Structure formats: C-alpha cells, structure tokens
C-alpha cells in the first residue's frame, strides 16, 4: 500500500503533436527545441505560478546523445526561457524514461524535498536514428544464457512474443487497424484538444537562384501517424520486417517518431501558495524486469505491482494507456492480464499515434490526466514495456 509523507499533484500537462521519423513534420526540429516548446506550453497552463518557483526539470530521453544534448533537460530549460535557477536532469529508462521522470519528480515532492518540479520527456528519432544501429555491451553479459536476448532488436523480441503467446498475424493486424480507427475517431471528436500544443516548425533552405536562405514557418497541431487509408487488406499485404517467416510488419509495429510531453508536479503546499488547481494525483509507480528477449511482456509484471502499491483492483482503473510498441506484445499483455479492450487505449496507441521512445511515457501521462477529467473517471494508468527487458506502470487519480 502507498505510504507517502505528502501527495504529489499534477497541475498542468501538455504535449507536442507527434511527427513521423525520419522524414515527418518534426524531423528538422531539434529535440531540445521540442522540449522547450513543451515547457513553455506547460507554464502557460499555470500562469499564476512564478517560474522562479520551479525547482527542477526531470526529463526522460532514451538516446541522450548527439543533438539531444547529453543533458537535454538543462538545455530545454534554458531554451524555454525558464530562469537559470531551474535545474535540469535527464533520466533514461529507454521507453519508460518519461514515465520514470514523473515518478522521480513525484518522489521528490512526496518526500518533502521539493514543492514544484517539471517532469517531461523528449525524443527525436529523426535526429538520433538508433533503430537498427547495433549497440555493444560488455561481452561478459553473454556468459549467462538468460541474458542473450539483450542482443535482440526490438522487432525480434516482438516476434518472440508473437510466437510464444500464439498471437496470429490476423489478430495483430486487426489490433493495428483498431488503433488507427480509435485515433481518428478521437481526433474527430476533439479529444486531443486539451493535451496537444501546436508547434511552429521553421524550415530554412538555401535558395541557389537568389543566393539567400528561404525561411518557411508552419504551425502543426495534429499527430502525423493516424492513417485513414489503412485497412485489413492493406495491412495483410505488408511483409514481415524482422523475421523472414514472422508476423511483425511496419503496419502492426509502433511508428518511429518525434515529440515531447511535460507535466507540472507540485506539493499540497505549492497548491495553496500559488493558487493552483490540481488535475490529478500521482498514486503509484512500479518497475519489474523480465527476460530481455520478451521485453514486450514487461507490463504484465509491472501492472499488478503498481495496483498493489496503490491498494487498487484492476477493475477500478477506467483508462489504461498501454504502450503499443508492437501489436503482438500489447495483445499478449492484454490477454494474460485479462485487460478490458474498452479501457485500453480508447484514443489509439503508438501504432497509430507514434512512439517517440523516451518521451512517450510523459506524452501518454498528459493524455491520461486530461482524459480522466473529460470522461469523469477516477483512476488511470500509463504502462510501458522497455527494451533490455522491463515493464513500468504508473497510476493517476483525478482530483
Ligand atoms: C520498449 C519499446 O517500446 S520497443 C519499440 C521501440 N520502437 C521500435 O522498435 C520502432 C518499431 N518500428 C520500426 O522500427 C519501423 O517503424 C519499421 C522498421 C517497422 C518500419 O519502418 P519503415 O519501413 O520506415 O516504415 P514505413 O512507415 O515507411 O512503412 C513501410 C511501408 O508500410 C506501409 N504501411 C505502414 N503502415 C501501414 C498501414 N497501417 N497500412 C498500410 N500500409 C502501411 C507504408 O505505407 C510503407 O509503404 P511504402 O513502402 O509503399 O511507402
């Protein structure tokens, strides 16, 4: 059961639209700029809060190198116009980085070490194209057979789950189609309006004729991934990408993406001092390891633990954002835990909406926080599978 010295409240939550990588609408926008945009949008949701009251910014990023700036949290803070007194720490738990950032921020609040902390995530898979690039580890890790799966690409782990859990190609494609259908229906119904922050995309290209740099500016405010043109027939035609006789395709995998999300986490004292209205309370967070070669099954272990910590039963959770890294792993988790399909990803998931790795947990948390209020639900959850073999889950309560 949860034992907190004090509660951690979320008073603002926003995200950028998600672009396709590597050639989508945000591909030329740097991840630190995406983060800065999200942070400015976040502060605009709490105009009564003096920015100097923000103590730290904890930011998830799965590939914090190169243009992501090693400590992208600090760069994003400075770019956003927040005062330099605001700190900045980048955390990495691969695909659960953004969710872990929220948990760290909440812990700082709950233990009384801070009153106002930003938790966020940012990732540009366009600018740091890691998928398919091999990573090296100490060879000693392979001395234990059970670690061998650490060498698998994410798609190969999805094939492993599909085969061990008997998830058919047809079921994966049907799940993927449903993700697109739900995302498009939610967009049509204006469901994303509270959470999405329009981003101005600036493009500069040399014009050789005039010998000048031509600048164009465009505001983007919708996720790029959902496809109205998809169908079971179109999905069935796609070839497996990760194994010759496999079932995981570009259509039933999450899309490579760019995006950022951010939440403002505060103590009860800060609510009163700054006259802030809470949207939600962060209730519990859990992480469990699983065999690396079936990393997608991670939420199956993390969800029961997060529920236990919260003292809640599964049927009390009215909205679950289950990261659709691949249809195969999402279906395996849903079947093993008997998750209600009506409660899981009511607005579509990463297959349709995209999955900017370290940002996704923060993006999905922004979705949950707003969805609980719009749909008058009490508890919601964000759960992620994590490469190298982990699952993470966080529970939110509308207040
Ligand atoms: C812990 C975790 O979360 S692990 C997850 C981490 N993330 C990942 O591993 C990313 C997984 N995804 C990927 O690696 C990539 O998306 C891949 C390799 C599966 C596919 O990459 P790409 O080939 O660049 O995808 P792309 O979007 O171009 O699609 C390939 C083709 O399928 C088609 N396609 C994709 N989705 C659909 C669809 N829903 N309906 C119809 N056609 C589709 C595209 O139109 C394209 O066709 P074309 O070649 O005729 O243009």
Describe the structure.
32% of the residues lie in helices and 22% in strands. It has 399 residues and is α+β, with helices and mostly antiparallel strands. The mean pLDDT is 95. It has a single domain (8-129, 177-198, 253-398), classed as Peroxisomal Thiolase, Chain A, domain 1 (3-Layer(aba) Sandwich), CATH 3.40.47. The protein has helices at 31-44, 72-80, 97-110, 154-164, 169-188, 232-237, 268-273, 298-310, 327-337, 350-353, 357-374, and strands at 9-15, 19-20, 56-60, 89-91, 116-124, 199-207, 212-220, 257-266, 280-289, 317-322, 379-386, 390-398. Residues 94-95, 131, 154-155, 176, 227, 230, 234-235, 238, 241, 250-251, 253-256, 295, 323, 325, 355, 385-387 line the site of acetyl coenzyme *A.
Q: What's a quick, concise take on this entry?
A:
By secondary structure, the chain is of the alpha+beta class. It is built from eleven helices and twelve strands.
Give the SSE map.
Elements: E1 9-15, E2 19-20, H1 31-44, E3 56-60, H2 72-80, E4 89-91, H3 97-110, E5 116-124, H4 154-164, H5 169-188, E6 199-207, E7 212-220, H6 232-237, E8 257-266, H7 268-273, E9 280-289, H8 298-310, E10 317-322, H9 327-337, H10 350-353, H11 357-374, E11 379-386, E12 390-398
Parallel strand pairs: 3-4, 3-5, 10-11
Antiparallel strand pairs: 1-8, 1-9, 2-8, 5-8, 6-7, 9-12, 11-12
Helix pairs in contact: 1-2, 3-11, 4-9
The structure holds acetyl coenzyme *A.
């Amino acid at each position: 059961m949860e034992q907190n010295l004090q509660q951690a409240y979320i008073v603002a939550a926003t995200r950028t639209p998600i672009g396709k990588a590597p050639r989508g609408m945000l591909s030329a926008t740097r991840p630190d700029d995406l983060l800065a945009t999200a942070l400015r949008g976040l502060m605009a949701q709490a105009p009564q809060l003096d920015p100097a009251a923000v103590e730290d910014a904890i930011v998830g990023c799965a590939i914090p190198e190169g243009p992501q700036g090693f400590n992208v949290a600090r760069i994003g803070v400075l770019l956003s116009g927040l005062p330099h007194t605001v700190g900045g720490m980048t955390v990495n738990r691969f695909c659960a980085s953004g969710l872990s950032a929220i948990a760290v921020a909440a812990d700082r609040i709950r233990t009384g070490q801070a009153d106002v902390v930003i938790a966020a995530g940012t990732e540009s898979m366009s600018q740091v194209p890691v998928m398919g690039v091999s990573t090296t580890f100490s060879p000693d890790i392979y001395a234990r057979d059970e670690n061998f799966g650490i060498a698998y690409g994410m798609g190969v782990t999805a094939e492993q789950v599909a085969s061990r859990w008997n998830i058919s190609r047809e079921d994966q494609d049907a799940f993927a189609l449903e993700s697109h259908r739900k995302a498009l229906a939610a967009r049509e119904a204006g469901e994303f309006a509270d959470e999405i922050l329009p981003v101005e995309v600036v493009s500069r290209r040399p014009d050789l004729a005039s010998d000048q740099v031509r600048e164009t500016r465009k505001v983007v405010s919708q996720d790029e991934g959902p496809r109205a043109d998809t169908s079971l027939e179109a999905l069935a035609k796609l070839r497996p990408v990760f194994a010759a006789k496999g079932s995981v395709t570009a259509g039933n995998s999450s899309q490579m993406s760019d995006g950022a999300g951010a939440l403002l986490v505060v103590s009860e004292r800060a609510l009163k001092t700054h006259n802030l209205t809470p949207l939600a309370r962060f209730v519990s967070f859990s992480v469990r390891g699983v065999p690396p070669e079936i990393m997608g099954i991670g939420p199956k272990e993390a969800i029961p633990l997060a529920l236990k910590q919260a003292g809640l039963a599964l049927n009390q959770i009215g909205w679950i954002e289950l990261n659709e890294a691949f249809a195969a792993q999402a279906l395996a988790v849903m079947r093993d835990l008997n998750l209600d399909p009506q409660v899981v990803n009511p607005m579509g998931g990463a297959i349709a909406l995209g999955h900017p790795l370290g940002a996704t947990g923060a993006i999905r948390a922004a979705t949950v926080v707003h969805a609980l209020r719009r749909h008058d639900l009490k508890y919601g959850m964000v759960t992620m599978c994590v490469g190298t073999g982990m699952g993470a889950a966080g529970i939110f309560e509308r207040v």
